[in-house]
Amino acid sequence: MKLLLIEPNIEGRVGEPPFNIALLKSYIKEKSSHEAKILDLTFKKKNWRKAISEEMNSTDYDLVGITCLIFNFWQALSVAEFIKNNFGTKIMFGGVHPILAPEEVISNDCIDIVCIGEGEQTLLELLDNDLECENLAGIYYKKDGEIVKNSQRKLIEDLDALPFADWDDFDLKRYFKVNVNHMSIMASRGCPYNCTYCCSHALRKTLEGKWVRFRSAENVIEEVKYRIDRFYDKGLRFFQFNDDTFIADKKFAFKFCELYKKHGFHKKILWTANVRANLVDDDIIKEMKSAGCYEAGMGVESGDDYIRNKVYKRNMSMEQIMNAVNTIRKHGLQLHVPIILGAPYDTVEIMENNIKLAKKINAECTLFPVLMPLPKTEIRDICVKEGLIEDDNFQESHAMHTKPVMKTKYVGSKGVGKIVKKARRYLISKYFFEGLKLKGPFFLWDLFLFFVYYKPTLKLEIDNAWKFTIHKYNLARHQKERGIHNPLQ
């Protein structure tokens, strides 16, 4: 059978090429004789209908698979409606949003099948059975206009059995220009924590089987070698580990660092990973730094103890957070810190104090996302109880950093918007003066190049200016400090 997998990014930001469908394609290719291709719409935003039409007319596809989160569900739905109206092909949705809200997703006329769990085994079995859905675990589907709910499929426990992701259908050189030569990679699935705003705890309640699973360090190292062999000459210089908490299994983390250094990869490719303040200690950060880690992503989320620990259930003290910040700084790693604005019980004072906390931490990259109450999360239950959700469609969720979609119990959406603008002004000022400090007048020249060339050529948003200037300066500095051959210029 012939399968087309679509990345429906027709409005959103450009980051790393999507890992999930790259892995799905490789799984189908390795385990079967079915044909699978990926259509990435990220760089086809203006002409996405034309791109789809050309691809659909070139091959008689049996099934179209579309992946989505809540953030891009409406984009995915637009793509599905266009395909169904013009080609009539069967359409399957997968991803976090279809898993958490399968009935909402499949109720749309253009969607025939919804994957309600991990997709690899389900998709393969569906293709092997010529799209016969009866009794196939892991899906909802439609039969004679009625929704049929099949049983859940157990999670894949042995992640080493999965093949390496297939990136052949992505314009990697263009991605590398936008994301400063990064590729995403994952060492695990699942997270052991219960942060109320995150979909992880909701997924754990929905899915069956072992939730937190790590690949072996040896298996990850094999993929690292494969990626370097295949993509270094195309521009790969950095890995971004997308694991929720890279150091949740410290035995894995230490072993990975040991093997990464043993193979000499730390002298060629640097990397970034997410940590958690209560797990950070001197030994693990020192080992990560020596193995080529240049940045730690660490969620702070709120400077208010009640919001952070009672509302968000982060279960960490401000002392732990600042100790972790100091440890990470001590070993020369960058910090990537998100702080959420718009918690259900945020006041203006709490949100303004969050901006003050960001100034105190002074991370190389600070984000101020506005809270989004995701389906089946505990934070959503609180927001519903308090009547705080004003817009439940998230149709402009790609602009979530600047356009609040909800209010708090004490601050209206306009008030939250004012705080968001204040945070944004702080970041613009911070990055502007950092750029001048790092490069002087050359920073102004790089900014000019971004606005007159890179932004219109690559169809970027203003926020990408940071990556094309300060982030690139810092990356080049880290490479120079490590004696990296062929660094960024």
From TrEMBL:
What's one Pfam family here? B12-binding
The record's GO CC annotations read: cytosol
Any one Gene Ontology MF annotation carried by this entry is: metal ion binding
Domain B12-binding stretches: 1-137
Database matches in PROSITE patterns: B12_BINDING, RADICAL_SAM
Could you tell me which Gene3D superfamilies the record lists for this protein?
Cobalamin-binding domain (3.40.50.280), tm_1862 like domain (3.80.30.20)
Listed A to Z, the keywords are:
Iron, Iron-sulfur, Metal-binding, S-adenosyl-L-methionine
All residue ranges annotated as the Radical SAM core domain in the record: 175-414
Is Cell membrane included in the keywords of this UniProt record?
Answer: no
So which cofactors does this thing need? [4Fe-4S] cluster
- The protein's name: Radical SAM superfamily enzyme YgiQ, UPF0313 family
Identify the species of origin.
Desulfobacula phenolica
